[in-house]
Input
Amino acid sequence: MPVTITLAFTPETLLAPSQDAASTDASVLAMESTCAVMIDVLRASSVMTTAGAAGVDRIYTTASVDQALAVAKELRTSVSGQGDGAQGVLLCGERNCERIDGFDHGNSPAEYTSESVSGKQMVMTTSNGTRAIEAVKHCDRLLIASFLNLSSVLQRLADETSILIMCAGTHREISREDVLLGGAIVERLLQSKSASDVVLNDQAMIAHAAWCQAGVSSNAQLADALTHSIGASNLIRLGMAADVRRCAELDSISGVVMRCNESDETCLPVSLDASLDPVSRFKFFS
Amino acid sequence: MPVTITLAFTPETLLAPSQDAASTDASVLAMESTCAVMIDVLRASSVMTTAGAAGVDRIYTTASVDQALAVAKELRTSVSGQGDGAQGVLLCGERNCERIDGFDHGNSPAEYTSESVSGKQMVMTTSNGTRAIEAVKHCDRLLIASFLNLSSVLQRLADETSILIMCAGTHREISREDVLLGGAIVERLLQSKSASDVVLNDQAMIAHAAWCQAGVSSNAQLADALTHSIGASNLIRLGMAADVRRCAELDSISGVVMRCNESDETCLPVSLDASLDPVSRFKFFS
Output
């Protein structure tokens, strides 16, 4: 069976084949049988993966700070009913790369240790990652990919026949580090499948070339490649170069953060107030 | 002096650094000292270059068919005053890759021979190229680039210190053939300047990698590379594969189509009715 790999450099560059209603319906329908892969290398998807591997119980993502606060409040009520209190819920995220005032954690992977997150509920809002998650909401399945767990992501994609790789970008700009990981995923998929059976869109071909041309064969080379991007330059300017190196630790984590099914009753609360903006719920699968 | 190369995969992926008014002003200001390069390999920029080399007098581009008709009417009045009559003005362009009903020429380079266009005024409307031209209207200078005249384009860029490479794409989708030419221009600029003096945006880096990875060293390889793109697949489906090969004839033309200055009184008419959509005027410089 042929495998279709569609890659989008940002949510904006993913277009339905045509603007008419019939095509849009067909496009949504096609998305339903699609597995989406969200990429925000610097740093949302690296943070989510690190937190998942460190034992976080659930990750709730929101677009706005207000929604993050509302979700945390609702979760604290639920969790405290179980005797855990406010300690069991962490407010996490950034604006302009910096920790949000009053939040427990910012967006540095180093903050997400077992000591700080194991067994806890994480409510997270970031500038770019959340928009990318929303853009693929119609997809049946959603994986969060980082260089940290590239091989685990590929294992999860082994049986998929329709894959949508959604790069987050940086403030709506195409960001090279996300494109590189997208290209790395395309490269491994091409290796694992018969190339004649794989259909790539133009962006997937371009991302693949970008990754191959980067010629990465060590973590140091990967960190160097990631450094030449708009996402990295913002971090380096703010003194966060260590985060770039951390996000380049290829395959240091086994497991993948995946979106929970809507019917998953083990996510609390099961019915969140979506009046501010949509909330997505994620869990780590080792 | 450092050279800044900004590349946009489509008009939509060119973003001002920020949305606030001060930055937008700064961005327009920066564009004013910038030389823009418009790329629509399949086929608007290849057609314009071919027509220019075949001796067309002026090319007027419009977004809409209605505006093309209005401009042609105005030109015919002017030209007939010079004794040339309606024969001196050609209506050219496509919708969905096909010649527009009632127009003289479609969008195949092969149609633009000396016999058919020499000394004439060309009014042209295409699906994608015109939008890309409009997106860079604030730039001081605008060159039309194709693989046909790559070396001539590079000669014109030799002394520029701020270059904006605008790929047209296909119906707002990123199209690989445009990105490849953009990458080829970046590659030649990097060769001609000290690499440490060149600042690339992420899209320029990605395009550069796509071109280098394509490993093109002959026209046949270039045609093959162009074939794997959304733009080419549309043409091939319509039986126009010969156009793809034609647009891959690297450096077969010496000279560049460039936008005329607003004050250029040799363009007729000097004041066009822009009530429908903007009109740009071009001339071939050998």
